[in-house]
């Protein structure tokens, strides 16, 4: 049995993540292309699709005939290829019968939920109350910069910012 403080932190982090997921579904229902812009269209999702293809063929998605889409192979190819979270997420999302815009939404929403949970836990570790920690989580994951730029246009920013509170 988990101690009471650990249980309340886990429940609070889950609640913060679910609030963000609910808000993102509202955004998505208003505009189904909200997460399908710029980098997602031209590079991120095609590379993720190739990663899913590689895993489905029993290959490690390091190099493929389509590797030319990423100019910086040493620094960022393929977007999160060494991340267990990204690979598990990509494999799960690509198992579902979703269009590219819906796949982009699923990847962004998952990252926003993880960001929200991490921000909540960081705020609780800084001795903030539970309601204030939920507020911190919502501000961290639903602010204009992260939604309008990171989650919809530039996945690199979202992917990096998602793990900041966890590393902090």
Give a quick set of tags describing it:
168 residues, mainly alpha, 9 helices
Order of helices and strands: HHHHHHHHH
**Residues in helix, %:** over 70%
Number of continuous helical runs:
9
User: N- to C-terminal separation?
Assistant: 27 Å
The profile of the biggest β sheet is: none
Radius of gyration: 17 Å
| Low-pLDDT runs | none
Structure class: mainly alpha
Could you characterize what this model shows?
It is built from 9 helices and no strands. It is an all-alpha fold and 168 residues long. The chain is globular.
Summarize the structure.
By secondary structure, this protein is mostly helical.
Write the layout of secondary structure elements.
Blueprint: H1 4-30, H2 38-56, H3 73-76, H4 84-95, H5 100-125, H6 130-142, H7 144-151, H8 155-162, H9 164-167
């Amino acid at each position: 049995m988990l101690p009471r403080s650990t249980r309340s932190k886990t429940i609070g982090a889950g609640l913060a993540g679910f609030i963000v997921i609910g808000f993102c579904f509202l955004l998505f229902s208003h505009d189904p292309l909200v997460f399908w812009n710029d980098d997602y269209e031209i590079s991120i999702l095609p590379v993720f699709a190739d990663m899913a293809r590689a895993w489905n063929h029993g290959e490690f998605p390091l190099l493929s005939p389509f590797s030319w889409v990423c100019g910086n192979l040493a620094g960022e190819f393929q977007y999160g290829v060494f991340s267990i979270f990204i690979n598990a997420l990509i494999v799960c999302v690509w198992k579902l019968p979703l269009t590219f815009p819906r796949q982009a939404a699923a990847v962004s929403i998952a990252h926003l939920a993880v960001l929200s949970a991490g921000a909540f836990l960081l705020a609780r570790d800084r001795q903030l109350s539970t309601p204030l920690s939920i507020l911190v989580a919502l501000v961290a994951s639903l602010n204009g910069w992260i939604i309008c730029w990171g989650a919809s246009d530039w996945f690199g920013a979202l992917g990096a910012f998602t793990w900041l509170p966890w590393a902090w």
